[in-house]
Amino acid sequence: MTKTPTTEPRQSWTFSREVNAEIRRAAATGIYDIRGGGAKRRVPHFDDLLFLGASISRYPLEGYREKCDTAVTLGTRFAKKPIELKIPITIAGMSFGSLSGPAKEALGRGASMAGTSTTTGDGGMTEEERGHSEKLVYQYLPSRYGMNLTDLRRADAIEVVVGQGAKPGGGGMLLGQKITERVAGMRDLPVGIDQRSACRHPDWTGPDDLEIKILELREITGWEKPIYVKIGGARPYYDTALAVKSGADVVVLDGMQGGTAATQDVFIEHVGQPTLACIRPAVQALQDLGLHREVQLVVSGGIRTGADVAKALALGADAVSIGTAALIALGDNDPKWEAEYNALGTTAGAYDDWHEGRDPAGITTQDPDLMKRLDPEAAGRRLRNYLNVMTLECQTIARACGKSHVHNLEPEDLCALTMEAAAMARVPLAGTDWWPGKGQF
Amino acid sequence: MQSLDMATTDLREVNATLQAQTSASNQTEWVIDNPRGAHAVAVGLDTPISVTVRGSTGYYCAGMNAGATIHVQGSVGPGVAENMMSGTVIVDGDASQYAGATGHGGLLVIRGNASSRCGISMKGIDIVVQGSVGHMSAFMAQKGTLVVLGDAGDALGDSLYEARLFVRGSVKSLGADCVEKEMRAEHLDRLADLLERAGADAKPSEFRRYGSARRLYHFNIDHADQY
């Protein structure tokens, strides 16, 4: 007897297994999903760009022989003491509280060995971080947790945080299990409660107020320290222009792939723009104001390789910043902890419940036993190695494009693999001299 | 008595001069004339000097004060004594928004009224307002004490943590998770001490105490309508 052919069971694209699982989770718990990290969805990114390299009209520089400089100075506009970095890659702000003390120490060690800066986060400045960071940027956040005059004056730069790419318009959240006695003490909160970090600053609203706030910070610190303004990738042209109008020395621009310690998944995946879409409008704003390169632009959100660094610089950034990638270099999501990730219902590479404080790698935790798993000296060396590799990769590309400084990379060195990337980066679609928005095909 | 005249001395020089004083300095009494609404006057002072400002100031007067006594003989703009660590700030007139915002310590006395969000996100500062305060005062206040001799506007103490609020007059409405609490002897003692230090003419027994119900300390979906 012949069996009648049947159709294969077909999963819906709209109602995928992942979507259905989230519906069931929401129905069971009544609360939205909270997680760490940045956007996981596929968005146009640096992978969609390619460098053209040298040709008859442009000659390359010799690798290992001809110099390709990587130094960058941040804060040249008003600050008496700009920050001089050996490489154009900085460590992004990440909070003590979300991260353990040893993890902050490791970031400081690695960044300092590579000749770059690290950044505090919500929750204040720790001795581990200050002590091991040659250059430390002190974030001035809406919560003002741990904010104090002494730390403000022993910082090398101040970063006024207006927003971040993972959640433009959102505040922070640190659940009670990570509010240990030390974390609570630094934040002036009771031990063990869920704490919220405010989404907007308590004592200023709008660019006119921000200008006065920056004046106050400069007066307190004797006009010595560069003032950065960090914005999420919401309206990059206008936000950059307003940050400059408010008196920023440096604009830090964070796209939606930039990570957070914890917020709602719906926020991370559905608010804000991809990093690639943010850079050109921000650069355009600086150029329109005649301040490109005088006000430095630092781009973050999904930077992973020296190629990403080179592409961000070619689009007009002065430097980039890494957060998630730095944590991975320290040991976050390492497959060697796979059994423990499985026990938490996840797998290495996908672990993002950083807010729960049970990180097997001992990085996003305040659990004393888990924290011991991270050796800050060894982790710092890994971060240094990774930063060095990214710098070498960036130099390799720059030399291939004939550049004696990585800042000499330019949009004309790039082409795009997709229409979307061409439109966002405003570079030609590969094989053409056209991008969407530029004349006729 | 040392004098700085802002009619002839710019802000940078005024602040740099005051910030340069050390605990070993014998120039402990300072007067600033003609502030004319300037912003960021007498900010970041970290020695126990005394500064009298003869006139009104703009934003962030006495910002991040850490030990100085600053007396403004006028009114102040937004964010007076913001993030104060220690010391005393006295305002003879009124204060605009965010007075004492995020202050970690010290005493802020406002002899007139304070506008909205007085004591927002306060972290240990004590604030005594001899007049009334505007809406959303003590929003997300974490630690410290807010004393109001007059009335409080809408949503007093919204999303309050462990700060203590005392109001002598009426409260238009309480914010999320803020409730009236029993006034015990320890609170009366605390209030008496603050009123005395602020030079305020009021009896502790005339006040009512407000604090956190602590229902929002851990996220609970059943409380979502309160957020």
From TrEMBL, chain A:
GO molecular function, one term: glutamate synthase activity
Sequence ranges of Low complexity compositional bias: 108-120
InterPro entries listed in its UniProt record: Aldolase_TIM, GltB, GltB_archl_type, Glu_synthdom
Pfam families: Glu_synthase (PF01645)
BP-aspect Gene Ontology terms: glutamate biosynthetic process
Residue intervals of the Glutamate synthase domain: 77-331, 355-403
Region (Disordered): 107-131
Keywords: Oxidoreductase
PANTHER family in the cross-refs: ARCHAEAL-TYPE GLUTAMATE SYNTHASE [NADPH]
Protein family (similarity comment): Belongs to the glutamate synthase family.
Name this protein carries in UniProt: Glutamate synthase large subunit-like protein
Organism for this UniProt entry: Primorskyibacter flagellatus
Source taxonomy: Bacteria, Pseudomonadati, Pseudomonadota, Alphaproteobacteria, Rhodobacterales
Automatic annotation (TrEMBL), chain B:
Pfam family, one: GXGXG
Stretches assigned to the Glutamate synthase alpha subunit C-terminal domain: 41-187
PANTHER family: TUNGSTEN FORMYLMETHANOFURAN DEHYDROGENASE, SUBUNIT C (FWDC), TUNGSTEN-CONTAINING FORMYLMETHANOFURAN DEHYDROGENASE 2 SUBUNIT C
Any GO molecular function: oxidoreductase activity
Gene source species: Primorskyibacter flagellatus
Gene3D superfamilies with a match to the protein in the record: Glutamate synthase, alpha subunit, C-terminal domain (2.160.20.60)
TM spans (from-to): none
Entry protein name: Protein glxC
Lineage of producing organism: Bacteria, Pseudomonadati, Pseudomonadota, Alphaproteobacteria, Rhodobacterales
